[in-house]
Amino acid sequence: MTNKKEDTDVKLIKHIQEGLPLTKTPYKDIGQALGMPEEEVIQRLKKLLEAGKIRRLAASIAHRKIGINANAMCVWKVPKERVDEVGKIMSGFEEVTHCYERPIYPDWEYNVFTMIHGYTDDECEAVIQAIKEKTGLNDYVILYSEKEFKKVGVRI
Amino acid sequence: MILTETDRKILHRLQSNIPLLSRPFLELGKELDIDEDTIIERIKFMVEKGYIRRLAPIINTQAMGREATLAAVKVPEERIDEVSAIINEYSGVSHNYLRKGKNKHIPYNVWFTMSAKDDEELHCRLKEIETRTGLTVRTLPTAKKFKIGVRFKIY
């Protein structure tokens, strides 16, 4: 940690990363626990969100539990010059939750990764079909998760 | 499924930022036309029953100065449990899955994400996994992000 402000932010995040108090005045209660006024808690969270250090202050949902059981990682072989165009098209699908470009290796030639979440495998595959039609891409692999060894939110 | 229509409405809304105001659940209640006490009570219920993992900041590891990567390993069938258990020991590992190609065979079958406080620590840990398992860990860090925002359609 480089300065005192950052220390306080880290302390704040560490205090709430397992969950906000589920009370009428959560920010006031966090402040009381950390010896900080409610307004400071709110302002610090606002700045962390604006700076993008916190993506969202929101619920992480156990998607399998609400019936979103299918989780397909679909990897695509995309010509370098088409990556930006294709990345935008793929991101436009609501079911595509993540879309990244990643490096290739001699034994790994798929450079664009999409995570697709759906209620069923069929729903995921319909999205893949639609992506194929919209982009004209044909070289891809659908990787389904066979087993979940670990899935936790990122903590600091 | 024991979620009510109200629960689904709340769950859907909670995937976006909750208000940074003194009484956030009162504000949410106004948006959704549900009273504050009910909102809090239903969120507690959904946390207890495990529908909501947590209502908390979703951290951008990189912006917080941390380094992260996706990694893939070709693990022989009979060593899958052993190797995945070794990977799981590391606290920076947030996801770890066994994956199988549906339309094509892919030799990489164990996929995990790891974050660490910096590049050095990250690579030191990945190296350690390689030493302990005797297997090569293929790193696939993000070159470009097009989308990250896990919000689900709640029917």
UniProtKB/TrEMBL annotation, chain A:
Pathway: Porphyrin-containing compound metabolism. Keywords: Lyase. GO terms for molecular function: lyase activity. It holds the Pfam family NirdL-like_HTH. Gene3D superfamilies: 3.30.70.3460. Its EC number is 4.1.1.111. Residues 65-150 form the Siroheme decarboxylase AsnC-like ligand binding domain. It comes from the Bacteria. It is an enzyme of class 4 (lyase). SUPFAM superfamilies: Winged helix' DNA-binding domain (SSF46785). Residues 9-55 form the Siroheme decarboxylase NirL-like HTH domain. It catalyses: siroheme + 2 H(+) = 12,18-didecarboxysiroheme + 2 CO2. Belongs to the Ahb/Nir family. This is siroheme decarboxylase. It comes from Candidatus Brocadia sapporoensis.
